Amino acid sequence: MTNLRIGDTAPDFEAETTQGKIRFHEWLGDSWGVLFSHPKDFTPVCTTELGYMARINPEFEKRNVKIIGLSVDPVDNHAEWAADIEETQGFMPNYPMIGDTDLNVAKLYGMLPAGSGETSEGRTAVDNQTVRTVFVIAPDKSIKLMISYPMSTGRNFNEILRVIDSMQLTAKHQVATPVNWEDGDDVIIVPAVSNEDAEKKFPGGWKTLKPYLRVVPQPK
User: Fold this and answer.
1) pTM above 0.85?
2) Long-range contacts: 127-133, Cβ < 8 Å, 24+?
3) Which of 87, 179, 207, 216 has the most Cβ atoms closer than 10 angstroms to its Cβ?
4) What is the Cα 213 distance to its own chain's centre?
5) Closest CA to 10 of 102, 101, 115, 140
6) CA-CA-CA-CA torsion for 92, 87, 157, 38, nearest 10 degrees?
7) Strands 20-23 and 14-17, sheet pairing
8) How many Å is the Cα radius of gyration of the chain?
9) Closest-CA residue to 182 (of 201, 198, 159)
């Protein structure tokens, strides 16, 4: 099993998807990416998730984020599942879905152990229950976020959007976001920025609660 950590380079791979064969890093290009995985096709919680991601895909596109799903089943199954998703959720997946029949991607990303075999055939959702992770990947291909969920709990993709907003603010303005931050709330100047540099970046000033805790309105 690969022990990936935040800051590591997201493993590159070639895979068949519902939108043709891709090489992952090349497909990402200079975009941010969200890779979210599923233990098996035709599972109830994942059905709701895939539909919701299709619904809010424009929000990701506004942020220069590409989304891609993965399920440990063949691409042909994904097409059948997509029809169910559209029927029950009102939205058909409008992003590629990886068919990980040889378990390669699941193992590369540490979601299944190396000894899991080389085929999805005969495996149940419970066998693959660890394949329930969201990865956020920056344009430099580094992993910025990993969240794993149990099969019984639907993921909160509004939270993923919130985290991406926070990380993009950090990348652009050298600010961090406090607990329960929402877009438009005050932010924190990162400790690496000196007061001298902060005066140039934030001419409107900031509130110093502690030398290491400087609060400033969210930059535009």
Assistant:
1) yes
2) 127/39, 128/39, 128/40, 128/72, 129/39, 130/39, 131/37, 131/38, 131/39, 131/70, 131/71, 131/72, 131/106, 132/37, 132/38, 132/39, 133/36, 133/37, 133/109
3) 216
4) 29
5) 140
6) -80
7) antiparallel
8) 19
9) 159
Residues in the chain: 220
46 carries an active-site annotation: yes
Can you tell me the distance from the alpha carbon of 95 to that of 53, in angstroms, rounded to the nearest whole number? 9
Token pair of 7 as six digits: 């800051």
Using the structure block, give the residue that is written with the tokens 């791979």: 13
- pLDDT tens digits for the chain (220 residues)? 468 999 999 999 999 999 999 999 999 999 999 999 988 888 999 999 999 999 999 999 999 999 999 988 889 889 899 999 999 999 999 999 999 988 999 999 999 866 666 655 655 566 667 789 999 999 999 999 999 999 999 999 999 999 999 999 999 999 999 999 999 999 999 999 999 999 999 999 999 999 999 999 999 8
Q: How many CB atoms within 10 Å of residue 130?
A: 18
Beta strand extents in 113-153 (DSSP E only): 133-137, 143-148
Residue 139 to residues 2, 41, 148, 198, Cα–Cα distance (Å): 21, 29, 22, 26
Point out the catalytic residue in the list 10, 15, 34, 46.
46
How far apart are the two ends of the chain, measured CA to CA in Å? Answer: 41
Alpha-carbon span 199 to 160, nearest angstrom: 31
